[in-house]
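User: Hey, quick favor. My workstation is busy. Could you predict this chain's structure for me?
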Amino acid sequence: TTHDYIKTEVYVPKTLFVKEEFNENSLEKIEGYAEQATSKLKTDDIIQFERFGFVKIEKSADNIICNFTHK
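Assistant: No problem, here it is.
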């Protein structure tokens, strides 16, 4: 059930400039769910999401906000 999970947003940086033009789609937001245990993480903690990559926790409350770091 979704009660066992917490809503999660991961921001993934993309190419900032394309042919010297600013890329308005340079930051992709991916929404999903993570295990409830992630709500106990602190800001700046780095964890690995299976089959996704490593993320750095930015906010931990009713939902988790993360920044993608690498695969």
